[in-house]
Amino acid sequence: MDRPLRVAALASGRGSNLAALIAARLPVEFVLVGSDKPSAGALDVARQAGIPTVAMQAKDFADRVAFDRALFGAVAEARPDLLVLAGYMRIIDASVVAAWEGRAINIHPSLLPKYRGMHTHRRCLEAGDTEHGASVHFVTAELDGGPVVAQARIAVGPTDTEETLATRLLVEEHTLLPAVVGAIASGRLQWRGLAMFDGKPLEHPLDAASL
Question: Per-residue pLDDT averaged across 40-57, rounded?
């Protein structure tokens, strides 16, 4: 690619992963940040960086599919090469996701395939796990079920709570997600019907240092 990778992002919360992406100064062009919450901090992060924003609320649409089509249609109009779900907290309709196969990644706070969906820190503690982590995966119609390309791991201590796990893991997410986007921007990580790294099928998730 003879130009910077065009990146759009969707986020529902404060936008700390988005801020980490911007701060990483990757060879990318951020073309849009969208949210399902007009008050999301991620929109403020984007505006401060001079990135165009769009916000829509599901309650303004007839159903989930109509909302997804509208929001993802707005994203498509920005012509991104890559869509990053950086703390986007809605389940996306399968028909909408299909159009983004190989062009969208998500960061999820668990060592997938463990603990898809919500409350991952709580579920990790309830299971008595000694290790927790975050995963970046290509987005598919299956919730948190697409091919995992990279993971970060932290130990779970006897005094850990949901809050301490979330805080410590977020630090790792802020390194992991920019590393993955950087690898896509450089062409090292690609989608060719499956995840490829340095021209070979990716057999197991990488860590940030390997990217």
Answer: 98
What single-letter DSSP state applies at residue 206?
B
What is the percent of the chain where pLDDT is above 90?
98
| Average pLDDT value for residue range 83-94 | 96
Instruction: Look at phi and psi of residue 199 and say left if phi exceeds 0, alpha if psi is from -120 to 50, else beta.
Output: left
The domain containing residue 76 runs over which residues? 5-210
Stated pTM of the model? 0.97
Query: Please, what is the Cα angle at 82 between 202 and 207, to 5 degrees?
Result: 35
Residue 180, judged by CB atoms within 10 A of its CB (0-12, 13-18, 19+), counts as buried
At residue 2 the predicted structure's pLDDT band, cuts being 50, 70 and 90, is confident
Say whether 64 counts as a known binding-site residue. yes
Residue for token digits 């060879």? 27
Which CATH number fits the domain that encloses residue 97? Answer: 3.40.50.170
Q: Is 89 annotated as a binding residue?
A: yes
Query: How many domains does the chain divide into?
Result: 1
Annotated active-site positions, please? 108
172 pLDDT above the threshold of 90: yes
Q: What span, in angstroms and rounded, lies between the C-alpha atoms of 187 and 198?
A: 8
- The answer on whether 16 is annotated among ligand-binding residues is yes
Six-digit token string for 197: 């790294």
Q: Is 90 annotated as a binding residue?
A: yes
